[in-house]
Amino acid sequence: RVHYYVFTDQPAAVPRVALGTGRQLSVLGVRAYKRWQDVSMRRMEMISDFCERRFLSEVDYLVCADVDMEFRDHVGVEILTPLFGTLHPAFYGSSREAFTYERRPQSQAYIPKDEGDFYYLGGFFGGSVQEVQRLTRACHQAMMVDQANGIEAVWHDESHLNKYLLRHKPTKVLSPEYLWDQQLLGWPA
Fold first, then answer.
1. Rounded Cα gap, residues 64 and 121, in angstroms
2. Which residues pair with 86 in a beta bridge?
3. What is the pLDDT of residues 16-25, one digit of tens each?
4. 100 is in an annotated binding site
5. Which one of 81, 91, 107, 154 is most buried, counting C-beta atoms within 10 A?
6. Do 83 and 171 sit in the same domain of this protein?
């Protein structure tokens, strides 16, 4: 069974999609924000809240994906694990010195220059509902502390995700092939 949850500030704009047997779609209305950065950062809060309100009683695993992802091949149960993160294709094979972690100690997302093993992309992560709820709650709380202190992490929720996954190692690290973006890498399409 697969249940797709689509978060949107425009529920009426979501088209009807024919789904296969055992699949269903729920459109979840959320608040609109003016800045894309706020949309990005608030998704941790939204996911955490919906974990509590719905997901814990409806599903076993959550896969959180950016809405503009295009799946070009089968993604199956091989990704289902208590907690997974996806390597950022722009930093694959790079040393930690090249990672764009949050380097300002004032931020809750701060990672010192001598720490870090991977750089994760914020657009594809997941795991058991309980683990995703822990991750999203922790990231949201850290972002609220930053906001109260007048600081915004360099890569917003992605910076906080990287800090969380550094301190709480994922049980599976997905290859950057799961979120390959030739345009992001400056390659011809």
1. 11
2. 174
3. 989 999 999 9
4. yes
5. 107
6. yes
Residues of the chain where predicted confidence (pLDDT) is lower than 70: 184-189
CATH number of the domain encompassing residue 167: 3.90.550.10
68 in a known ligand binding site: yes
For residue 188, the model assigns a pLDDT of 61
pLDDT 10s digits, 35-48: 877 887 789 999 99
Residues 22, 101, single domain; the answer is no
| Domain limits for position 40 | 36-179
Q: Please write down the HEC assignment for all residues of the chain.
A: CEEEEEEECCHHHCCCCCCCCCEEEEEEECCCCCCHHHHHHHHHHHHHHHHHHHHHHHCCEEEEECCCCCCCCCCCHHHCCCEEEEECHHHCCCCHHHCCCECCCCCCCECCCCCCCCCECCCEEEEEHHHHHHHHHHHHHHHHHHHHCCCCCCCCHHHHHHHHHHHCCCCEEECHHHHCCCCCCCCCC
189 part of a folded domain: no
Check whether residue 161 and residue 110 sit in a common domain.
yes
Is 168 annotated for ligand binding?
no
pTM of the entire predicted model: 0.91
